[in-house]
């Protein structure tokens, strides 16, 4: 077990992807702090790990506040004597188009995803540096944060912000031997369960059957367990040289996302005026960048069937 003796915190790990991450870290030998807002859900998650021979305990609290971050990190040190791995997975959704999005919808998503990631990582990195621990920070991003998605202004902002923080943390934490990466999962979740396009894959997963190859290979869409291996790998000593990266995973597919880089550069003596941009912008920059994700048509046999 490559993580034997390590201690991990996984936020939002009562169910879904977070639970899969926690279970895999425990399977690899780590002692895990489970986090959820519901006490019964957290207790079930702990029990699932202990029944499999692993070690876990729970902190029931919403991420976002600094107080929760301190509780999580204190629990790791007080219960297991240290902290080596942090996975910031906790999140909520409040999807709606911008003109219908309330302040509360925006603030809640930003608070849980973005502020929750920041406060937990700040507390963990501070303690790791003090202890001289070469830790692993693994944050969870989304294709929405990389590409945008209709109806997800709040979520896109939070996930893009997480990727930006990770690139900064890779620089700030390097001297302390702490790596920071963002994982971009594509998997069956409560959110994708409501999307007709993924119905055949979600149905197969719910039945414990293999997902059709179209989803696993062509779309890189799989199960929570498909993502968990990357989490454990990035948490290991073998991944000590990987930091500041955005890594996508889902189904049979592994991807390394690029950092934002200029794709076209043009110069004009004296600078670019309004008039010169009107005349030369298109030629100077070339083809514009696309936004959002597009999916190929579903094969006939995988298309949702009308309800009788």
From TrEMBL:
Keywords of this entry: Oxidoreductase
Pfam families per record: adh_short_C2
Family annotation (SMART domains): PKS_KR
Residue span(s) of domain Ketoreductase: 6-190
The protein, known as: Dehydrogenase
SUPFAM superfamilies noted in UniProt: NAD(P)-binding Rossmann-fold domains
Gene3D superfamilies: NAD(P)-binding Rossmann-like Domain
Family under the similarity heading: Belongs to the short-chain dehydrogenases/reductases (SDR) family.
InterPro entries given in the database record: KR_dom, NAD(P)-bd_dom_sf, Peroxisomal_Beta-Oxidation, Sc_DH/Rdtase_CS, SDR_fam
Keyword Manganese: no
